[in-house]
Every structure is written in structure tokens, then in C-alpha cells.
Amino acid sequence: MRVQVAIIGSxxxxxxxxxxxxxxxxxxxxxxxxxxxxxxxxxxxxxxxxGTVEMLDRAGVGARLHREGLIHEGxxxxxxxxxxxxxLSGLTGGKKVVVYGQTEVTKDLLDARAASGAKTVFExxxxxxxxxxxxxxxxxxxxxxxxxxxxxxxxxxxxxxHGISRRSVPQSAMQTYERVYPFGWLGVLxxxxxxxxxxxxxxxxxxxxxxxxxxxxxxRCYVQCSLAEDLEQWPDERFWGELRSRLDPKTAEALVSxxxxxxxxxxxxxxxxxxxxxxxxxxxxxxxxxxxxxxxKGLNLAASDVHYLSGALIDYYASASSAALDGYSAxxxxxxxxxxxxxxxxxxxxxxxxxHGPFGEKVHAAELEFLVGSRAAMSALAESYVGLPY
Length: 390
Ligand code: FAD
Ligand code: DHB
Known about the structure:
Layout: E1 5-8, H1 12-23, E2 28-31, H2 36-41, E3 47-48, H3 50-58, H4 63-68, E4 70-72, E5 75-79, E6 82-86, H5 88-91, E7 97-99, H6 102-116, E8 119-121, E9 125-130, E10 138-143, E11 146-151, E12 154-157, E13 175-190, E14 200-202, E15 209-215, E16 218-225, H7 236-245, H8 249-254, E17 260-274, E18 277-278, E19 281-283, E20 289-290, H9 298-319, H10 323-350, H11 357-373, H12 375-386
Parallel strand pairs: 1-2, 1-12, 2-8, 5-14, 12-19
Antiparallel strand pairs: 3-7, 4-7, 5-6, 9-10, 10-11, 13-16, 13-17, 14-15, 15-16, 17-20, 18-19
Helix pairs in contact: 1-6, 1-9, 9-10, 11-12
The chain binds flavin-adenine dinucleotide and 3,4-dihydroxybenzoic acid.
């Protein structure tokens, strides 16, 4: 097979890039190691920045999002037994976020791709990249016992943190920066009414918690947990009890619990690979960087990378100039590091770190008090939460 762009991975980054290239008349194939159902079954992000929504509109997949997505103009921070509202819209001149599951974004993109007839290979085994610094790099994979080869002009590595793309770059050509956090998030999805119309981020002695949602009848909640936790030890009642113990009495009483329809533990990590390019391979999304989920930035960063990368590829095929492609990594990384800073800060602010000790706890309490008492500090939080400009 010969295409202009080979995209590795059909997560949000790969699918959105595929759609934008397809609309621009650029021939691309998506090569995904898992099945379509597996990709659709992953429960992950829930909060979309306005810029991400605009990108999905540009990709022609925004209709259901506008019908079913929940527009949020603020969220609460709960600490010391009291809830404090962050008025996102009031603090940012009217900006909002939309609560719409990553699963739904993925479904809309997969449906649009299938309708357009664009090529996707699911269940591709042993994907490998070759000739990244040659004019025509190649992707090889196994499908139904046979080896296949795709020759292309460029490879877009959109295969997430554990993918093959970043690992195909010689170590000396890429610098990595990493911070691993000493805890994880235990998340539960349930068909229960959300405890509040807006998200509640909780800082409590027992650890962080988050009450989020997917719809007016579906909740998504998380509690900070030790990395050594075993899901088997977390029957639903224990999860709801732990969450309730981190809420103020009024919210705890309003919390409706019910059977989980998904339960998982996610580790927290900050990670950046620089540059986001090697020869004709361009990395986008989690393949190049990870943020801890506290600031709701991962999916949104994948979208902003795709904004820069799709623009650069479209420019290349329209003008034969590689200037935009050459500038891709630096442009994307500027925004990536802003999101890294914000996600690190919000994680630090709201979680319990075993190593912080009594002094650290007191400083955290003071920081939370300062935040909710200062319009300037609240504005800084709101500005990053709704998403920095592209
Ligand atoms: P992925 O979604 O990881 O997709 C990569 C794809 O590549 C996958 O389909 C994978 O199967 C495929 N792949 C992997 N290896 C190969 C290979 N060798 N060959 C071919 N294909 C391969 N972000 C937000 O913005 N807001 C949130 O509220 C938020 N909440 C989160 C909550 C949790 C619990 C978690 C875990 C994450 C959250 N995130 C959030 C982060 C967000 O889910 C990710 O940043 C996002 O999925 C990144 O998209 P991606 O397309 O880059 O990578
Ligand atoms: C969700 C996840 C997040 O990391 C976050 O900050 C907000 C919401 C969610 O899954 O709904």
C-alpha cells in the first residue's frame, strides 16, 4: 500500500488527524493494534476545552456533541468541609468547557471515518516503523498471519504512551522528562445521577476525590488511591463509602450510589519527549506527552497537537514547503509545557503526598485558602482550565 500519511493508533489523536487530512484530500491510513470494540470500550477523559470542540466541528463530527454534551460554566473545589465555586465563565470572559466522554468523541470519529470510506486497519500485529529518516518511510504489520507494508511520505505517531512510535526513535535523538506520582486514581462509572450539576474536585485528609459525570444519569467518580491497590479489594460499597468520607456532610448525603459499570485504577504521570519529531515521524498526543489527569488536559492536548500537525501537513501538500512541518515540534511543545505546568500544579494542590509531612500539609491548606480568596488566583486557574489559546 502507498499513502501520503500513515497514522499509527486510532485514539482521539489519530482519528482526528485522519478526519482533518481526509477533508483536505490527503490520503492517509490508520493502523491500530486493537479491535474497534476495544478502542470504544476504553473509559477515559470527560472534559473538552472550547478549542477541542471547535476542532471537532471543523472535522465535521460536532453534531452529537452539541446535542448531548453538557456545557459547564464552572466547577467546585471542596476542602475543609466547604465547597467553593470556580466561575470559569465569569473569570474568563465567557469561556466554557463541555462534558462529553472520550468514548463518545471516539465513536463519532470512527463513524465519520467509516462513512467516508477512509482506510483503517484494526488488529494490526507487530507494528514496526522503518526508514524514518529516508524520503519514503515504511510501516510493517501482521494481519491475519500475513505481513503487510505501507510506504508513505510521513508517519504520524498517535499510538499513546505505550506505543511503538516514540520507541522507534534512537534514544540519542530524543530527550525525555518524567515525573511519576506515588499514587493513582481509582475510577468508577455508574448509571446514577451525578451528585451535583457541576464537577467537584475534593482535597481531603484521606486524599483527593473527583465527582464527575458523563450525562444527567451517568456518574464518573474517582478517589486517590495507593498504587499497590488491588481492584478485587474494592467492591462498589467500599468505593462509595470512601468517596462519601471525603465529601462534606451535605454532599455526602446527596450522593446516590449504585453498581459500577466500569472500575479501573490509573497511575499518574507527567512526561514529555522532545522534540516531537524524528525525520519523517511526527508524534502527537500521549505518544509524546502525558499529564496527570487532574487538570483534564490529556485529550485536549492531543487535539491541539493535531491542530498544529494537520495544518503543517496540509500546508506541505498545498505549497511543497516544509516550513510548517519544521516548526511543528517547537509550536506544539510550547503549549504542551503550559499544560504540564498546570496539571502538575493542580495535582500538587489537591492530592495528599505521603512525603509532604506536616509542614507541606499546612502550606497546601494555606494555598487553597489563598486560591479561593483571591480573584487573581482563581482567574489564573480558570484561564488554564478552559484551555490556553492555540
Ligand atoms: P490514546 O487514546 O492512548 O490512543 C492511542 C491508540 O494507539 C490506542 O488506540 C492504542 O490501542 C493504539 N496503539 C498503541 N500501540 C500501538 C501500536 N504499537 N501499533 C498500533 N496502534 C497502537 N484527558 C482530558 O483531556 N480530559 C480528561 O478529563 C481526562 N481524564 C482522564 C482520565 C483518566 C482516568 C485517564 C487514564 C486519562 C484521562 N485523560 C483526560 C487523558 C486522555 O484520555 C488521553 O490523553 C488521550 O486518550 C490521548 O489520546 P491519544 O490519541 O494521544 O492516545
Ligand atoms: C474527568 C477526568 C478528569 O481527569 C478531570 O479532571 C475531570 C473529569 C472525567 O473522567 O470525567
